[in-house]
Amino acid sequence: MKSPDEVLREGELEKRSDSLFQLWKKKRGVLTSDRLSLFPASPRARPKELRFHSILKVDCVERTGKYVYFTIVTTDHKEIDFRCAGESCWNAAIALALIDFQNRRALQDFRSRQERTAPAALAAPAEAAEAAVAAAASEPSGPSPQPKPRTP
């Protein structure tokens, strides 16, 4: 299993700004198993992180001669547009890392549900056995008395 800090891919991609002119800004992307970090061109600025638990999907892939355009949709349905050089395959790398993250999370959820229900499932047969023993102990031993026939 990969550690969350292990870099899966690193390189250049461009993010469309939210400003009025929607300019493409070059970023250095660092993809790990649980997030995409975007470092701006200026070294002083802090990176922006898109954690996979807040990403719904990678969507809307379009190829032109030079670029691949794709959109990351967040859990609050915000769309963030990116483009990268056609041969860099950033969209595929992000999509695969996101699927891997979602699969790991689903497996963890399943295991935690099993662990919560397993003690109850193990206790149920033991409780049933105890109840049967208690019921048997409360019954009188020996044959049960026969009712007397009624005479008219």
- In what order do the strands lie side by side in the largest sheet? 4-3-2-1-7-6-5
Radius of gyration: 31 Å
- Beta-strand proportion: 25-35%
Element-level helix/strand string:
EEEEEEEH
Shape field? elongated
- Tell me how many strands there are: 7
What share of residues is helical?
25-40%
Largest sheet: 7 strands, antiparallel
Q: CATH superfamily of the domain at 7-106, called what?
A: Pleckstrin-homology domain (PH domain)/Phosphotyrosine-binding domain (PTB)
Estimated structural class: alpha+beta
- The poorly predicted ranges are none
Number of helices: 1
CATH C-level class of the domain at 7-106: Mainly Beta
Structure described in brief:
The chain has one helix at residues 90-138; strands spanning 7-16, 24-32, 35-39, 48-51, 55-63, 67-74, 79-85. It has 152 residues and is an alpha+beta fold. The chain starts with 6 loop residues before the first strand and ends in a 14-residue tail after the last helix.
Characterization of the model:
It is a single chain. The chain has 152 residues and is α+β, with helices and mostly antiparallel strands. The protein has a domain of 100 residues: PH-domain like, CATH 2.30.29. Helix content is 32%, strand content 34%. It is built from one helix and seven strands; from the N terminus they run βββββββα. A seven-stranded antiparallel beta sheet has the order 4-3-2-1-7-6-5, with helices on one face. β1 and β2 form a beta hairpin. The longest helix is centred in the C-terminal third of the chain and has 49 residues. It is elongated, with a radius of gyration of 31 Å. It starts with 6 loop residues before the first strand and ends in a 14-residue tail after the last helix. The mean pLDDT is 85.
